[in-house]
Amino acid sequence: MFECEFRMNNQPPAPRRIEPIPAQRAASLEGDALRAVEEICSRLSSLPGALLPILHAVQERLGYVPAEAVAVLAQELNLSRAEVHGVISFYHYFRTQRPGRHVVHVCRAEACQALGAVALERHAKRSLGVEFHATTADGAISLEPVYCLGNCALGPSVMVDERLEGRVTAARFDELVAQAREAG
Ligand code: FES
Question: Which of 27, 59, 151, 175 gives 157 a disulfide partner, CB atoms 3.0 to 4.6 angstroms apart?
Answer without folding.
Answer: 151
